[in-house]
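User: I'm putting together a small comparison set for a docking exercise, and I want a reference complex before I start. The sequence is below, and the ligand is nickel (II) ion. Could you produce the 3D structure with the ligand included, as structure tokens?
Assistant: Of course. I'll restate your input first, then give the structure tokens for the complex.
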Amino acid sequence: MANYKPAAGFDESSHSVLSVQHLIAKEPLSSIPQQFVRPNQEPPSTFSNTETGSLPTTPTIDLEQLLSDEASADIELEKLHSACKEWGLFQLVNHGVSISLLEKLKHEIEDFFQLPLEEKVKYRKPGDLEGYGCDQVISKDQKLDWGDRLYMTTNPLHSRKSHIIPELTSSFRSTLELYIVELQKLAVKVLDILGRRLKMEMGEMGELFEDGKQSVKITYYPPCTQPELVMGVVAHTDGTGITILNQVNGVNGLELKKDGIWIPVNVLSNALIVNLGDILEIMSNGMYKSVEHRAIVNSEKERISIAMFISPHLDAKIGPVTKLTNHQNRPIFKTIGMEKYVKNFISYNHEGRSHLEYMRLCD
Ligand code: OGA
Ligand code: NI
């Protein structure tokens, strides 16, 4: 690492990009490097023939309503249930996470990404998915996402990497720790409500996720002069139970696929986005949707997001909830232990078939 040129965001020795932010910081690029160019992208619906005005808008769920003792809680619960079935994603308002914590976190994250590259690469180990930087290059023809990340396992605690959270500034660390605790509590509240709707025993869902597997990905998407050529995060579903996404600096970019078209998610201010992952689709025996989504980038503004990936603990069993299946409604997914699920997910060779498809039982 001794002779790389920090301002260029490029590692001479491995011929790989370390950071998109620093790659473009020195001088404006005359063209987008081929590694980032993805031809034949499905355009977002705003570029297609569909009139934006007629696009359906993503559902909004009010957590205070859901948790209230009034009759309106049942109406909100049905709204949530249908959001999970039809969309696999909703915006959560009145979520109880304090605005001052969200503001503080935003400043800490902005400060982090403003650090010089040589400071940030301390949080990177070649070949490790965790830590700082843009996609690591594994194969020659690999296309790279247009964004730099700080990605880390946050739970179980013993899985945390010693060169990441413990090395952050103390104010970033304490703010992040608080955020992690608040979001985990929030996730368990939402999951418990979903568990009840899925006929699970009281508290059963929350127990699965208590002290569960959890990781955090903070992404900095620099602006791009030709955003239609690149992708911030390529289309995927999350392998999680649920993911809570916070668009830290209020810049939109998330899109989801519904009925074959890409729909932009216009986030309400101070709302958090909850999207369901593969594990909830499996547990609900296909009733809830693990939503396909992607992140596009902006031609003018940088965008920052923080995704909290929330999954069951490693001793949990992943499979359709027993009360949802019977002779008429047979389980359509396999049941396996969480530890094996994670191993399979990481090592799964996609070849056009998603890991969720691999979990599907053939009849
Ligand atoms: C992800 C993801 C979206 C975003 O990291 O899984 O979907 O807007 N991110 O950053
Ligand atoms: Ni995702």
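The chain has one domain: 57-359. The pocket of nickel (II) ion (ligand 2) is lined by residues 236, 238, 243, 293 (CB under 6 Å).
User: Thanks, that's exactly what I needed.
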